[in-house]
Design a protein that fits this description.
about 45% helix; three-stranded mixed β-sheet; alpha/beta; five-stranded mixed β-sheet
Length: about 300
């Protein structure tokens, strides 16, 4: 399946530039992927959570402007709900993909369908903080620290992953299909322990018998850095799902420089990374829910 954009505006390049700018700022201070702890950004009217690169774009905008809400609307949706976007407010450009079928003539002159083309299209969102006339949803009762830990522990247990708490490094070992973590009491906080565990759990999903992630042919020597970006995003998405207040991008110039190198050389890389992180996030949560259901039925 081919992917095309309109020649007037290269959405891949535009959005990649926005993410690059955010990562560049991360060299000076930590980036908070998740601001409020209320979950993934979602549409206020439909209740649907945004996915992939749109999550990053909305989080980046919330971080930059200090928005307190994780809910968003298009200008039209705001009007339909009786609201009004305040004059002078700027929207966030997000994207969706549409598949078109292209027809061509065969040798006999008849028309037949030959190809599917993936077209990237923009749409624009405003945060509820930018809109008058619409009440913000009541913040759901936040999980306290014990419940947050319990929710994360539940994911680790019901994913079925083998975790060894030993040594002084965190890593996923493909040869034994196991995750190794330092003992949890060696971390600065419980949330830091679980964020690292979820990062490694995202790596775990990339095994050949799971999601089979392998970008060596595409990114060469930078494929390791690219997989690290997927794992960082996957951990952030999972943290949001579990209600963690914050997931910090590592303030490590080596990581960020490697990611910037990949993104600057391939304008579609951030779309791939965010999409793969969303797949890993969904794979883990589906696995956890399925194993829980089997346990209850037993």
């Amino acid at each position: 399946m081919k992917t095309i954009t309109t020649p007037k505006k290269d959405m891949y390049a535009q959005i990649t530039e926005e993410i690059i700018a955010m990562l560049e700022s991360g060299k000076k201070s930590n980036i908070t992927w998740v601001r409020t702890g209320n979950g993934l950004p979602r549409n206020q009217k439909t209740g649907a959570a945004y996915q992939g690169v749109n999550v990053l774009l909305l989080w980046a905008s919330a971080m930059t402007h200090g928005y307190s809400s994780d809910c968003w609307l298009t200008y039209k949706q705001a009007a339909e709900m009786g609201g009004q976007v305040r004059k002078g407010e700027k929207s966030v450009t997000c994207v969706f993909f549409k598949t078109l079928e292209r027809e061509s003539e065969n040798e006999g002159g008849s028309t037949e369908k030959t190809d599917c083309i993936r077209v990237i299209k923009p749409f624009w969102l405003f945060n509820l903080d930018q809109i008058d006339g619409i009440d913000k949803p009541q913040t759901t009762t936040q999980l306290n620290e014990f419940q947050q830990i319990d929710a994360a522990e539940n994911v680790l247990i019901h994913s079925g992953v083998v975790i060894r708490e030993q040594g002084d490094k965190a890593f996923y070992r493909p040869s034994t299909d196991e995750i190794y973590l330092p003992e949890r009491n060696r971390f600065a906080s419980e949330i830091e322990f679980y964020s690292v565990a979820l990062h490694e759990l995202t790596h775990w999903t990339g095994a050949k018998h799971r999601l089979a992630r392998d970008f060596a042919s595409r990114f060469g020597t930078e494929s390791y850095a690219f997989e690290e970006l997927i794992a960082e995003l996957g951990s952030a998405f999972l943290n949001a799902e579990l209600g963690f207040a914050a997931s910090m991008l590592p303030n490590h110039a080596g990581y960020i420089d490697s990611w910037l190198k990949v993104l600057k050389s391939d304008k579609r890389a951030i779309f791939t990374a965010a999409n793969q992180a969303s797949k890993a996030h969904r794979y883990i949560m589906d696995l956890v829910e399925g194993n829980q259901s089997e346990q209850k039925a037993a």
